[in-house]
Write a structure and sequence with these properties.
Layout lengths: L6 H8 L13 E5 L17 H12 L3 E6 L10 E4 L3 E3 L4 H12 L7 E2 L3 E6 L6 H17 L5 E6 L11 E4 L3 E3 L7 H9 L16 H18 L5 E4 L12 E8 L2 E14 L3 H6 L3 E13 L4 E2 L1
Parallel strand pairs: 1-2, 6-7
Antiparallel strand pairs: 1-3, 2-7, 3-4, 4-5, 6-8, 8-9, 10-11, 11-12, 12-13, 13-14
Length: about 300
């Protein structure tokens, strides 16, 4: 039998960074569905009626990310539907009402429900989509739920969130933060950072809705500040003219300021052979993708610091 090759392991071997891949969905619906019944695509999951599957599929086509969610041993405690970033959840008397709520949300109307003030953490454990998400995602999920304050955090297992090669993959809402390569051992520090309203820098992918090189630069500045001033942001970035068609080896300098210190952040474009999930690896597929990588951080008064 051929040994399984994990896309996450290959990604690490190739040195591809997770920084710069922080884009998160703008609107999310969390639909409670037992993990054992998840399928790919999610609207073909077991026991999902044709009308509900149609509503989930149409929501996805309209740009709403519908995540099927579950909790180990606690499925009965999950509300049927939750909307983010509105942080509203509800149960419904009938499937018809549930379907109508999904359709109305797609059209811009949030269903009536209960406000949930907690931070919701989606952890991808979708074994149907990728073995890495099952292997790394589930251990991270279990570590988080073992220590998290349920009054402060709502932690759920979720279907595919994207970025399988960066497993464990997490999305934090309503903050719209994406994290990658999260490990079980990082769970305490991760929750502590979120409790303080801060970003967990080691696994942070970058600010959503920002071009990749600026995500990388801002994160580099934040890490510099944490190392050198023991504090975090805010970071001011002077947006440079970004190359429209960069080639491998292209260089870019982003000027930043954090806590009164001026920084020049050097980036370099590199090509990586990207295999987005284990299925692509098994089939021998993949493609070469240009990524912007940190080359160095220099203060205006000193030599490069990393």
């Amino acid at each position: 039998m051929t040994k399984h090759v994990f896309c996450r392991d290959l990604c690490l071997e190739r040195g591809e960074p997770h920084e710069g891949t922080g884009n998160a969905p703008t609107r999310v619906l969390l639909l409670a569905w037992p993990r054992g019944k998840w399928r790919t695509p999610r609207w073909e999951s077991a026991d999902m009626s044709a009308p509900l599957a149609k509503a989930v599929h149409e929501a996805a086509l309209a740009g709403v990310h519908v995540a099927l969610v579950d909790k180990v041993g606690e499925t009965e405690n999950l509300p049927q539907l939750q909307a983010q970033p509105e942080s509203v959840f509800a149960d419904f008397e009938s499937e018809a009402e549930l379907i109508a709520a999904i359709g109305n949300y797609v059209d811009g109307t949030v269903f009536e429900g209960t406000y949930d003030p907690r931070t919701t953490i989606l952890v991808c454990t979708d074994s149907r989509r990728d073995a890495c998400c099952a292997r790394y995602g589930f251990s991270t999920y279990k570590a988080l739920t073992a220590i998290a304050d349920p009054e402060q955090f709502n932690i759920v297992q979720a279907t595919h969130l994207g970025g399988c090669r960066f497993a464990a993959s997490l999305v934090v809402v309503p903050q719209r933060q994406r994290y990658g390569r999260m490990t079980a051992g990082q769970a305490p520090a991760f929750l502590e950072a979120l409790s303080r309203g801060e970003i967990f820098l080691p696994a942070y992918k970058g600010r959503t809705d920002m071009p990749e090189p600026l995500q990388v630069a801002e994160l580099a500045a934040l890490r510099w500040a944490e190392t050198n001033t023991r504090s975090s942001g805010p970071v001011r970035l002077d947006s440079p003219d970004l190359p429209k068609d960069p080639q491998e080896g292209a260089e870019l300098t982003v000027h930043a300021a954090v806590h009164g210190t001026e920084l020049d952040i050097s980036l370099r474009a590199r090509l990586f052979h990207v295999q987005g999930n284990c299925g692509v690896v098994a089939e021998g597929g993949g493609q070469h993708t240009l990524r912007w990588c940190l080359d160095g951080v220099t203060t205006t008064q000193s030599q490069p610091q990393y």
